[in-house]
Amino acid sequence: MHRDHEELPMPLGSRSLRTTIAAKQSNAFPLIMNPNGPTLMNQLCFHRFLRPLTLHACVAVAALSIAQAVSAAPPAAATADATATWEAKTVASDDKDSNQQDVEIYRGGKLIARHHSSLLGTPGLYPLHSPSGQPLTRDYPMEEKGKYEKDDHHHHRSLWFTHGIVNEFDFWLDKPTPHTGYVVQTSLSKEETENGVTLTTKNDWNDPDGNRILSDQRRWSFSESQGDTVIDLDVRLMATDGDVVFGDTKEGTLGARVAGTMKVDAKLGGTGQNAEGLKDGAAWGKKSSWVDYSGPILQADSDEPSDWPTAGITMFYHPDNSQPDCYWHVRTYGLFAANPFGRHHFGQPEYDGVKIADGEHLDLHFRIVLHDGDFDREKTEQHFADYSETKPSL
Question: Which of 22, 55, 105, 307 maximizes the CB count within 10 A of its CB?
């Protein structure tokens, strides 16, 4: 008959007997207590005794490992969503001649953008930062030109909205002439929610003598999608003072001038590309739904471009715009602009432009996405699909 354990009575105080048994049992299995005194376990009993203890020990170790891993996770990663609140701070304008205020947009305590009522003469956004805080547009002419920047095209001011031919006036270039126009902000309101910030401005497009040619209303809506910052710009162009014609020129309309290290000409890896896959110079003058410009961002603590993070800006043109076609002014020196009015400079037949009759208006809708990392086509196409499903209005 098989016995689970062999009973060997042994007085607890008998040191010699304990020593004798230990010497005879090469496996040295532990003792168990029973009414007849301590008993030495045999191998089968020992395994049955040990199995549940081992199982419980493994479970305890696994639970401890998980708890340690969770507690060791970076606090920022664990609380990013909870702390990424939106805030709009009103600040004084840098332009002493402006009676309007600027607004700084923050998410999770990080500055995303500053809306200037007068960015050296026209409303615009500067600086413009990626979600991690990387500067995406050049400093000049708002500040001294930085490394890899050139002091060219003084009218390229971070991110702005104007056009080169409006009736007989040029609102794109800023060199004072009898035909230079100026966009002047006249009002500002802001709204903060847990999902984003919305700024609404009204602006007059004036001739050099201060006479109004037309007015516009702009709504800048800041939100988040796929970990990127999303800025929707909805513009209503209103013919408040007679007929208005937006002319056929390449100089327009929603423009951005990227950081010096991002531009293609810096030869650091920056690139511009459109929805059709055309890159850099090949994307200039082409019709497309969107264009992305991405590249490395200069870091103060490193002179090695391979150590720099990458980031970028993508602009989208809504497919339901009343102007169905948008051509793109994409330059390897860092400019890219969405232009729904220009044609002949882009190799298309010349035409008379787009007329807005007195008392009428024209709405345009754009989306700007600020992202960290390299250009991601799949992600960008999803952004455009999401944007296409929206029905923007003013």
Answer: 105
Within 13 Å and on the Cβ side, how many CA atoms surround 114? 18
- How far is Cα 209 from Cα 194, in angstroms, rounded to an integer? 43
Q: With the CA atoms of 76, 78, 79 and 82 taken in that order, what torsion angle do they form, in degrees rounded to the nearest 10?
A: 150
d(CA 275, CA 384): 10
Question: What one-character-per-residue DSSP string does 278-323 give?
Answer: -BGGGGTT-B-SEEEEEEE--BTTB--GGGS-EEEEEEEE-TT-SS
At 14, the pLDDT band (50, 70, 90 cuts) reads very low
C-alpha 266/C-alpha 28 separation (Å) is 75
Q: What are phi and psi of 226, to 5 degrees?
A: 55, 30
In which element (H, E) is residue 235 found?
strand 228-238
20 versus 211: which is more confidently predicted? Answer: 211
Cβ density class 347-366: b for 16+ within 10 Å, e for less: eeeeeebbebeeeebbbbbb
What are residue 189's phi and psi, to 5 degrees? -135, 155
State which amino acid sits at residue 136.
L
CB 165 within 8 Å of CB 251: yes
DSSP state of 387: H
- C-alpha 360/C-alpha 270 separation (Å) is 42
Dihedrals phi, psi of 391, to nearest 5 degrees: -125, 75
Strand, coil or helix: what is 248?
coil
Helices (H), 119-242: none
Q: Which two tokens stand for residue 250?
A: 């390449």
The Cα–Cα gap between 138 and 126 comes to 9
Altogether, the residues listed in the chain come to a count of 394
Q: Is the peptide bond before 11 cis (omega within 30 degrees of 0)?
A: no
Give CA 10 to chain center in angstroms. Answer: 77
Place of tokens 């060219």: 152
Could you give the dihedral angle defined by the CA atoms of residues 9, 15, 20 and 26, in that order, rounded to the nearest 10 degrees? 90
Residue 27 has pLDDT above 60, yes or no: no
Q: What is the mean pLDDT of the chain?
A: 85
Provide the whole-model pTM: 0.79
**157 DSSP assignment:** -
Q: Output the six-digit token pair for 176.
A: 């004072």
Please name the amino acid found at residue 159.
L
Give the residue from 40, 41, 38 showing the smallest Cα distance to 11.
Answer: 38
